[in-house]
Specification:
Blueprint: E1 18-26, E2 43-52, H1 59-70, H2 74-87, H3 106-117, E3 118-119, E4 127-128, E5 137-138, E6 153-157, E7 165-170, E8 173-175, H4 177-181, H5 190-193, H6 201-223, E9 228-229, H7 232-238, H8 261-264, H9 268-271, H10 273-283, H11 298-307, H12 317-330, E10 334-336, H13 344-353, E11 361-363, H14 372-381, E12 387-389, H15 397-406, E13 416-418, H16 438-448, E14 455-459, E15 469-473, H17 478-492, H18 499-505, H19 509-515, E16 516-517, H20 532-541, E17 544-545, E18 562-566, E19 579-585, H21 587-604, E20 651-654, H22 656-666, H23 673-683, H24 692-697, E21 705-706
Parallel strand pairs: 1-6, 7-9, 10-11, 11-12, 12-13, 14-18, 19-21
Antiparallel strand pairs: 1-2, 2-5, 3-4, 6-7, 7-8, 14-15, 16-17, 18-19, 19-20
Length: about 725
């Protein structure tokens, strides 16, 4: 849609295109300061944008509601805030260098894309669209109308994820959800929805359909009531050429609810706690306050007084460790060491003083004195620990991934680690020097053989490389993986001929299998429905997303960790029944092959040749064109004429029970029988109803068969698959 065009609802041959943009206020890079020279003044700019080829009518409202649902989850909010924090002072203003990479905000884009392109709460009314993140990303440094958007755009302000604002746009004016959707569905008259006794069957059906659509439209509109509407002035700050005449928006200060005088004043006894804590710290004597350590309310006040000291004082560790067991019971086993700075020694003292089986999650966000060994110590000290949060800490990406590579067994029992290293979508281009001698060949082979021992989900329709979809994580919990895969297969059997193909091709479901955890919080809705199926759907709509699986393997050779492979795009073009398998490659056999390959490479190249791949500067398009190349940056050209392909006996294929037994032998937690049975039920063929309507409407159900060793060759680079 061009700037200033009228509200014309036309369908083009290529679709009904719509883009959605996320904007936020960021402090610009020092080379892109404001006109008055104030380098610390924040400005609105676009941080990421996503394209959908078929998005119009009610669909933008549905996508908006799903995205806003994800912004209600405290974990999602915290991760998004940290991503915005890391961007402060890093990029120029809109259209100015340094430019934002097309996926420079991978977590924000991942939340947006999965909400916009999928609706997977109910298998009977599932929705999947698009072609994934990379193929649908829109450059965030350009104009909002620089791309085909026949059916408008949607813009979200996520500066404060807890208080987002949004609008739809057709032409160059912000629209409410009602204004947008009424361009497609005008309010029908009462007569058009009232069924009369003497109406023909056709007229009755049309009136019923009109009434149903109107009810659904009203439901979409009401679902977005109460969300702030973006002003034109905000849009003008981001895209001044598209929204002429806008004023600079005023910095919003959220007003707090007025408090009564009695509520504002704490009880007199609480006013004395702060000075009492100061005195106890000075004297290192807590006998006077110890009776309050177990009293609800008083213990919280004492902890607040202690946590107001930064760095945390050594003398405060004793009272803190006496209060924390009661806090753990109240907080479902969550140990929060956030706020003031703690030393490693203080954290170790806290760990040793707590009942080991009471801790289920540890939050260390903001701590700047951590060491990598502490992560291992936490996982080994607390047997029931399932999660560690490490946002805004001094633990680097390299340090965390090194643990995943060299000490994977330390993380076997963990379900979740929240850290920026696990929020990266695009594989890093390897900077590989050419080996100059046999010793360097061995060293490089070793370097390439110690990638994180994680999990790779790859789907590929042989003969069509563009249908290769990869999602990988550097560590995994078997129960989480099976739960995600069971959900994946359940939706493939919803009975719709077209949905499985769209579902398999959208390239978002595979990473969602490895990263999305349905909410465990109580379900709060206005409906009176209480059945388990409804609650499960609501928990999915309000799911936690704690990582962004990479679009390529951490190990480009796919020889490290576990693989789950599917060789189908789910039969829209009459292809055979899909095959699947859990696969484990023999790492020693693969390393021997790799040494042979590197030795041949050494013989082929001159010693002074430099083929190392290095990162490039990000251009104004945000690097969008990079995504049209293969999804993983493979470091060598294959096949090599003097190096034989790895044979099929270099890996094993397992069914789900074989996988469960194998991971247990590795020392990982064996998946529960419930998770195994759910996976088996999800891949079992579904009996079709023997009605004429069913037979006419649906194709035969998908039958999932286990791969054999030769089937795996299409996926393993060392096997020289045709696609290489």
């Amino acid at each position: 849609m061009t700037r200033g065009s009228s509200f014309l609802l036309t369908t083009t041959i290529m679709g009904q295109r719509h883009q959605v943009f996320l904007i936020a206020r960021l402090i610009p890079h020092s080379d892109s300061k404001s006109s008055d020279g104030n380098k610390s003044q924040p400005f609105y700019r676009c941080i990421t944008a996503h394209h959908n080829q078929w998005c119009y009518g009610r669909l933008p409202l549905s996508g908006s509601r799903r995205f806003l649902n994800l912004l209600k989850i405290p974990d999602n909010i915290e991760i998004l805030r940290d991503e915005l924090r890391r961007a402060q002072g890093k990029y120029g203003r809109q259209g100015k260098a340094p430019h934002v990479h097309a996926l420079g905000f991978p977590y924000a884009h991942y939340l947006l894309a999965q909400a916009w392109d999928t609706d997977l709460d109910n298998p009977d009314s599932a929705y999947a669209s698009g072609v994934g993140l990379e193929n649908a990303v829109v450059g965030p440094n350009e104009g909002c109308f620089d791309h085909g958007n026949d059916d408008g755009i949607t813009v979200f302000d996520v500066t404060d994820p807890m208080n987002p604002a949004f609008c739809h746009i057709i032409g160059n004016e912000p629209l409410t959800p009602e204004q947008y959707v009424r361009g497609y569905y005008r309010v029908p008259s009462k007569e058009r929805m009232t069924v009369l006794e003497d109406d023909s069957d056709y007229v009755k059906k049309e009136k019923q359909r009109t009434a149903f659509v109107e009810e659904d439209v009203l439901g979409h509109i009401s679902s977005l009531e109460g969300v702030r509407l973006l002003s034109r002035d905000v849009l003008a700050e981001v895209w001044p050429e598209e929204f002429l005449g806008g004023k600079a928006p005023r910095a919003e200060v959220l007003e707090k609810e007025p408090m009564s005088e009695t509520a504002a004043l704490p009880p007199l006894a609480d006013l004395t706690i702060g000075p009492s804590v100061d005195r106890c710290l000075l004297q290192n004597d807590w006998s006077g306050l110890e009776p309050f350590f177990e009293m609800p309310g008083k213990a919280e006040r004492i902890k607040e007084a202690l946590f107001s000291k930064n760095p945390f004082p050594d003398a405060g560790i004793t009272p803190l460790t006496k209060m924390l067991p009661y806090e753990l019971k109240k907080n479902n086993g969550i140990l929060e060491i956030v706020g003031p700075q703690f030393t490693v020694e203080q954290i170790l003292s806290i760990m040793s003083a707590l009942p080991a089986d009471a801790v289920q999650a540890v939050k260390l966000n903001g701590q700047q004195s951590l060491v990598p060994k502490l992560i291992v110590d936490l996982a080994t000290t607390f047997p029931n620990l399932s999660r560690i949060d490490l946002l805004n800490t001094n633990i680097t990406d390299e340090q965390l991934l090194e643990i995943c590579s060299k000490q994977p067994e330390a993380l076997y029992k963990l379900h979740t680690i929240v850290h920026p290293a696990l929020l990266v979508r695009t594989p890093t281009k390897p900077n590989l020097p050419i080996p100059q001698n046999t010793e360097e060949v061995q060293a490089l082979a070793h370097q390439l053989s110690i990638a994180p021992e994680g999990f790779i989900f790859q789907q590929y329709r042989p003969g069509n490389y563009r249908n290769l979809t990869t999602a990988s994580i550097p560590f995994f919990h078997p129960e989480n993986v099976l739960n995600g895969l069971a959900r994946f297969f359940t939706f493939l059997k919803n009975g719709d001929d077209f949905f499985p193909h769209a579902y398999g091709e959208c390239q978002l479901v595979q990473p969602m299998v490895l990263s999305c955890i349905p909410s465990t919080s109580p379900v709060h809705t206005s409906t009176t429905a209480t059945n388990k199926t409804f609650e499960d759907r609501q928990r999915w709509l309000h799911r936690t997303v704690t990582c962004v699986p990479m679009s390529g393997p951490h190990d480009p050779f796919m020889a490290r960790g576990w693989l789950f492979l599917i060789n189908s795009s789910f039969r829209m073009f009459g292809e055979p029944d899909p095959k699947y398998g859990f696969v484990k490659v023999d790492e020693q056999a693969h390393k021997e092959w790799l040494v042979e390959l590197l030795t041949a490479q050494l013989e082929d190249r001159s010693a002074d040749e430099d083929s190392a791949m290095r990162p490039r500067r990000v251009d104004r398009d945000g690097g969008v064109m990079e995504f049209y190349r293969p999804q993983s940056y493979f470091p060598f050209k294959l096949p090599h004429p003097r190096v034989s392909a790895l044979p099929s006996d270099a890996w094993k294929v397992y069914d789900v029970r074989g996988f469960a037994d194998a991971v247990a032998r590795e020392g990982r937690p064996r998946p529960s029988e419930e998770a195994i049975a759910a996976f088996e039920g999800a891949i079992a063929p579904t009996a079709m109803n023997e009605t004429k309507e069913q037979r006419e409407r649906f194709s035969p159900p998908l039958v999932f068969r286990l791969m054999d060793g030769d089937d795996v060759k299409a996926f393993i680079p060392a096997a020289y698959p045709y696609r290489l």
